[in-house]
Inverse folding.
């Protein structure tokens, strides 16, 4: 019998390689979990009924606030991806000034859905592209919901600023701070650039003592210091001619460090006489221009003024305010419409500013200096914020800053939108409907992200002690019936037309929150490894 033929083994030309994606998935999930934990930390602070956080710094300073940007800024976040959410909050603060908690909570909700979609095996690039499409479509939806606004409509501006202040620690003072913020911003709007507001033109001066009710807007300048009176000089000056000087009225020093040994009294008398003559010469030049108020910049090289120079300035009936910060010089010169003087040789009358009154005013236990009635005053204003303790004072300043930013948003983009979770629930509904028209994975991703936007009304209801599931379900129902301005009224604990309740916010706050949150989530999603460089 013939031997059976043995078939030769076929060589497998295709080489199979195994790629371990476990590490990439772990890194991505680790980043998402870290960022979500940061979002969860500030979530309870959202809305007018949100909780406050007590922050204790390493130096022992205590801060009480519910401002998202402040909380995250003070948190010592170590995980690199979690730091993105801190930067996200700062970006929102820079762009809009308000909605810093909203943007972080939104990012946290979007990341939660990303984690779910990744576990279903959807590729991160597909999820990222869906987020980009959502961002663009969401801005269009929000713009279609917005109500146009004119700057002459002061009541609407005040309502918007009040909505921003209602969620703050100092919310009971919103009836005072909101109109003040509106008046401050409108007073610095340049007719040549009607869409631009520089908040550096509004100076906030904090002064301990009194209550927040004592906060006022001053058309002029306020200095949180006393008049220099060691030489017995004046503390009140009418028809003031003001000079802002950046040189020292004190004896000069040598350019290099060296010791001068004086061997006898004759030489000592000669030195003192020369010093007196040098100072007197400067003061005579100052007095010759008619100047009667001096603002002296703080000096680091030597004393800006000495007791001797203050004595001679008092004799010349010149009011002196010393130790003016270098950073404040630009604001002061813009307000007084004058030029800073860097050298005594350049001291001329045309460089002076003019005001009706410069006086020292008692405020509580201390004193401040007010300059009012400024001639040809620049487009600036000063807000004097008062508070009974440092915690209230700091929070009042932060709240006022947010209100100023809200009004600034309305100047640059003149549209208002309802608050109370109305825009988010309408977005969720419209994006959900839009997802049905998309094909494949994109439609599936958009549907999930549309659901995640409900986190804002859900959190508002939760923080107000309401039943979040019942409230959000009812809210969804109202919007399905075409009531696009229906929102959560946390004071009444029910769904109402939030636009009629005067709960409004700038369109820019909502659009930038969506755009920045989706951008941040896409960035975190694209990271598949963390490389540490020593």
């Amino acid at each position: 019998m013939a031997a059976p033929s043995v078939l030769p083994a076929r060589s497998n030309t295709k080489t199979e390689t195994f790629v371990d994606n476990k590490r990439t998935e772990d890194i991505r999930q680790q980043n998402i979990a870290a960022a979500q934990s940061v979002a969860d930390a500030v979530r309870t602070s959202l809305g007018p009924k949100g909780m406050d956080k007590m922050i204790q710094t390493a130096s022992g300073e205590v801060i009480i606030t519910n401002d998202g940007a402040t909380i995250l800024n003070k948190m010592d976040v170590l995980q690199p991806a979690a730091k993105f959410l801190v930067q996200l909050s700062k970006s929102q603060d820079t762009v809009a000034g308000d909605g810093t908690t909203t943007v972080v909570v939104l990012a946290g909700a979007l990341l939660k859905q990303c984690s779910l979609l990744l576990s279903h095996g959807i590729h991160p690039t597909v999820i990222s592209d869906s987020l980009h499409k959502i961002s663009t479509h969401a801005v269009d939806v929000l713009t279609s919901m917005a109500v146009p606004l004119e700057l002459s409509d002061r009541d609407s501006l005040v309502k918007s600023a009040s909505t921003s202040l209602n969620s703050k620690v100092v919310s009971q003072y919103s009836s005072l701070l909101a109109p003040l913020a509106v008046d401050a911003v409108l007073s610095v709007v340049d007719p040549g650039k009607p869409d631009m507001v520089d908040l550096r033109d509004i100076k906030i001066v904090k002064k301990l003592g009194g209550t927040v009710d004592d906060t006022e807007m001053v058309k002029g300048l306020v200095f949180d210091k006393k008049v220099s009176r060691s030489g017995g000089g004046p503390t009140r000056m009418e028809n003031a001619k003001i000079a802002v000087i950046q040189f020292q009225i004190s004896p000069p020093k040598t350019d290099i460090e060296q010791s001068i040994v004086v061997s006898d009294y004759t030489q000592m008398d000669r030195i003192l006489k020369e010093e007196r003559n040098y100072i007197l010469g400067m003061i005579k030049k100052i007095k010759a221009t008619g100047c009667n108020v001096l603002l002296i910049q703080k000096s680091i090289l030597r004393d800006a003024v000495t007791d001797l120079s203050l004595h001679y300035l008092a004799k010349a009936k010149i009011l002196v305010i010393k130790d003016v910060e270098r950073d404040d010089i630009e604001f002061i010169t813009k307000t007084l419409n004058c030029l800073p003087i860097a050298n005594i040789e350049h001291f001329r009358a045309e460089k002076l500013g003019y005001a009706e009154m410069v006086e020292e005013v008692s405020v509580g236990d201390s004193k401040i200096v007010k300059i009012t009635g400024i001639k040809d005053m620049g487009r600036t204003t000063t807000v004097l914020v008062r508070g009974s303790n440092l915690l209230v004072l700091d929070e009042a300043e932060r709240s006022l800053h947010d209100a100023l930013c809200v009004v600034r948003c309305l100047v640059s983009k003149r549209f208002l939108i309802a608050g109370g979770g109305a825009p988010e629930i309408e977005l969720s509904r419209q994006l959900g409907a839009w997802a049905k028209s998309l094909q494949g994975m994109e439609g599936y991703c958009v549907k999930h992200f549309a659901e995640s936007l409900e986190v804002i009304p859900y959190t508002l209801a939760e923080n107000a002690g309401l039943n979040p599931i019942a409230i959000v379900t009812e809210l969804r129902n109202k919007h399905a019936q075409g009531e696009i301005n229906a929102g959560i009224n946390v004071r009444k604990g029910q769904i109402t037309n939030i636009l009629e309740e005067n709960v409004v916010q700038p369109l820019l706050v909502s659009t930038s929150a969506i755009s920045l949150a989706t951008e941040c989530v896409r960035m975190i999603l694209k990271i598949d490894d963390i490389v540490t460089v020593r």
